[in-house]
Amino acid sequence: DTAVSQTPKYLVTQMGNDKSIKCEQNLGHDTMYWYKQDSKKFLKIMFSYNNKELIINETVPNRFSPKSPDKAHLNLHINSLELGDSAVYFCASSQANRGQGYTFGSGTRLTVV
Amino acid sequence: DAKTTQPPSMDCAEGRAANLPCNHSTISGNEYVYWYRQIHSQGPQYIIHGLKNNETNEMASLIITEDRKSSTLILPHATLRDTAVYYCIVRVDLTGNTGKLIFGQGTTLQVKP
Predict the structure, then answer these.
(1) Is A41 close to B85, i.e. CB distance below 8 A?
(2) Looking at chain A from residue 72 to 111, which residues have their Cβ under 8 Å from any Cβ of chain B?
(3) Which secondary structure element, helix H or strand E, spans residue A10, and what is its range?
(4) Is cis: bond before A8, omega within 30 of 0?
(5) What is the mean pLDDT of each run of 10 residues along chain B (113 residues)?
(6) CA-to-CA distance for B93 and A72, rounded, in angstroms?
């Protein structure tokens, strides 16, 4: 059983399209995150939800909208995709007690052409 | 946000101990130090974390200086599969018990036969 699973693993799409990436965790964690890793391999946090409530919203274009239907899911919807959105997107989860580790998914490689 | 400084790259001979240093001189008294690694383009993998005391688990040991301004991750017997980018992170506390991990550039560890 994969602890944090993301779908799809690869996504190739044209500029201007709208796409979604799904994330599910079966660890019983109450906090989930989205990170973006660009071509320079720099990992940057985008969003975080704790018990379905948005707690982190970094400087991300409003074309990106996270949605958390329940504690086990955090989806990322991207409108009007741009070339610069090409990156690997990682989902992660944790239990919101100080000192707990984060578990990351295997990533979704998004390529905008 | 507390920042970390790591050497960009290190080499280690297979079977020898790998000692990865990290400086975090602006760390606050209640902030944890985390270590993660990323192999190729896989999702970051949790290694270990600590607050004040030295910690050891099945993967590694973490040595934190008494003033908490620096730490060292020790892989006791490095193997070729330990070749990865290693990230030293100070967890930023948010409201309640939530927090966020801010990744730096990390240290690329190359284990050589």
Answers:
(1) yes
(2) 88, 90, 92, 96-99, 101-107, 109
(3) strand A10-13
(4) yes
(5) 86 97 89 92 92 93 95 97 95 72 91 96
(6) 22
